[in-house]
Design a protein that fits this description.
It is a single chain. The protein is α/β, with parallel strands linked by helices and about 475 residues long. It has helices at about 10-15, 15-30, 35-45, 60-70, 70-90, 130-140, 160-170, 190-200, 215-220, 230-235, 235-240, 260-275, 305-320, 335-340, 380-385, 395-400, 405-415, 415-435, 440-455, 460-475; strands spanning about 45-50, 55, 95-105, 145-150, 180-185, 205, 250, 285, 325, 345-350, 390-395. Strands 3-4-5-6-7-8-9-10 form an eight-stranded parallel beta barrel, surrounded by seven helices. Bound molecules: S-adenosylmethionine.
Length: about 475
């Protein structure tokens, strides 16, 4: 009998190898089954209700059939529905963030990451609180309001106390009109008690990439260090939720294992969180392995091409319509452009993946975690987004207003996004334009704001948003939010 049980708290029961293999066989057997594919597509399509749109999402089996599908016109439909879902729940807003690398000390042996312990020639660096302040000042000078902090795993050099000190420092910096309003955290799996302390420190999302759901590969790719423990890593999000963090971010490092296996595992993980905690993942990231100091991505057998990558992104969009999706500067402008239409809701901009990189004039490579493909400045990214019809949003209101976990989901489901996220996006964009933008970006930005204000359905909200934007333009008053 299969051990598969989405409600179990045991990794090997909610990410069950046998169930994944059966799912892949089912998907393969039905990849040309037009009738079934049409039924699945119909289920995935957003439906209009009196309150707005609703979407059923898909099970891991249904979504895996779509991913396996090879019929060109059905694949086109997958893309079309992904776009419809994106517009129905996220509109044309794209949330902006940047990573901040705190320390590259690491005791793990991850074979795809240059921070692995055996790498003796990479300089090891850990920011002092003074350096954190300098990095945050540089990030604020670019216009960032939302960060994802990153660190290797090292209980001596980067204990949780160090991470907590850094979070406190980051929130304490108020340079000119700037501040960091949301700190997301991407650090190694830890204990319930430590997650509780992170929650108390006011973090936004706790992000932890599974890297691979395939246990055997996981053990081989993480041969040494605490991260070797597959169950401890895979069950981390349950501990995070037990510790009170209700926004968690999943991800797979594509290229390590067979993408169809990873995809089924990822959707099963989302189903598990929903089944046990009543709320699915807040975000899903889709990183691909990149070249780095002593890492050659071609040495991994499972690299995926850009078309497959787009199909995976679209199928995730259909399976978990209410989950935000993140694409980083690991990808080129071209790939990012394509994926933005297929469901991505967050992008990083102006990123540096080295420890202390933001205070350097030139992008330093010595401590870089991986090559950045999109090397444009934040201003260039903001301008490009708008030229392509997306509203860059620096909004961080939801978690600060207590709209996390299922409360955020209900906002989505009740069609209130246009009265809430939309004005917040426009107000924070206006802050960016006033304080940091180039002349060209500012001009395009205000044209966009003027047009988009009209899309706010509630008259009272619309008028207040207009008033707030006028205050932002004419004074140093900042941080208006609904
Ligand atoms: N040490 C933490 C952990 O164990 O999860 C923090 C995460 S690390 C700073 C951020 C992520 O970068 C990793 O989870 C991994 O997926 C990704 N990464 C590592 N090496 C990479 C590479 N060569 N190319 C692309 N992404 C990489």
């Amino acid at each position: 009998m299969s051990l598969y049980n989405p409600k179990s708290l045991k990794a090997e029961e909610f990410i069950n190898d046998e169930e994944i293999r059966e799912t892949l066989a089912y998907a393969e057997a039905n990849k040309n089954n037009s009738e079934l594919i049409d039924q699945i597509l119909e289920k995935a399509r957003p439906k209009k209700t009196a309150l707005g749109h609703v979407c059923a999402g898909l099970t891991h089996r249904e979504a895996s059939v779509l991913l396996a599908c090879e019929i060109p016109e059905k694949i086109e439909k997958i893309y079309k529905i992904a776009e419809e879902i994106k517009l129905a729940f996220y509109g044309n807003r794209i949330v902006i963030f940047a990573p901040l690398y705190l320390s590259n000390y690491c005791v793990n042996g991850c074979v795809y990451c240059p921070y692995h312990m055996k790498n003796k020639h990479i300089p090891r660096k850990k920011l002092t609180q003074e350096e954190v302040r300098a990095e945050v000042t540089a990030l604020q000078d670019m216009g960032h309001k939302r960060l994802a902090i990153e660190a290797g795993e090292d209980p001596v050099n980067n204990p949780l106390e160090y991470i907590l000190d850094c979070i406190q420092t980051i929130y304490s910096v108020h340079h000119k009109n700037g501040d960091i309003r949301r700190v997301n955290v991407n650090i190694a799996a830890t204990t319930v008690e430590n997650y509780r302390r992170l929650k108390e420190a006011g973090i936004g999302t706790y992000i932890l990439f599974q890297e691979t759901y395939h246990k055997e590969s996981y053990l081989r790719l993480h041969p040494t260090g605490p991260k070797h423990d597959y169950a401890y890593h895979t069950e981390a999000m349950d501990r995070a939720m037990q510790g009170g963090i209700d926004d968690v971010g999943l991800g797979v490092l594509f290229g390590l294992e067979m993408y169809k296996y990873e995809f089924a595992g990822l959707i099963m993980h989302a189903e598990h969180l929903e089944a046990v905690h009543g709320v699915g993942p807040h975000t899903i990231s889709v990183p691909r392995v990149k070249r780095a100091d002593d890492i050659d991505p071609t040495s991994f057998d499972n690299g995926i091409d850009d078309d497959t990558f787009a199909k995976i992104t679209a199928c995730i969009r259909l399976a978990v319509p209410y989950t935000g999706m993140i694409i980083s500067t690991r990808e080129t402008q071209e790939v990012r452009s394509k994926l933005l239409r297929l469901g991505i809701s967050q992008v990083s901009g102006g990123s540096r993946t080295s420890v202390g990189g933001y205070t350097e004039e030139e992008r330093p490579h010595d401590t870089e975690q991986f090559d950045v493909s999109d090397q444009r400045s934040l201003d260039e990214v903001v301008c490009w987004l708008m030229k392509n019809g997306h509203i860059p949003s620096f909004c961080t209101a939801c978690y600060r207003e207590g709209r996390t976990g299922d409360r955020f989901m209900s906002l989505c489901k009740n069609g209130q996004i246009l009265n809430c996220c939309h004005p917040n996006a426009l107000m924070t964009l206006s802050e960016y334009l006033e304080d940091y933008a180039s002349e060209e970006t500012k001009k395009i930005g205000y044209e966009m704001i003027e047009k988009e204000l009209k899309c706010i359905p509630k008259k009272k909200v619309r008028e207040l948003a207009m008033q707030n934007i006028s205050d932002i333009k004419n004074s140093n008053r900042r941080d208006f939010r609904f």
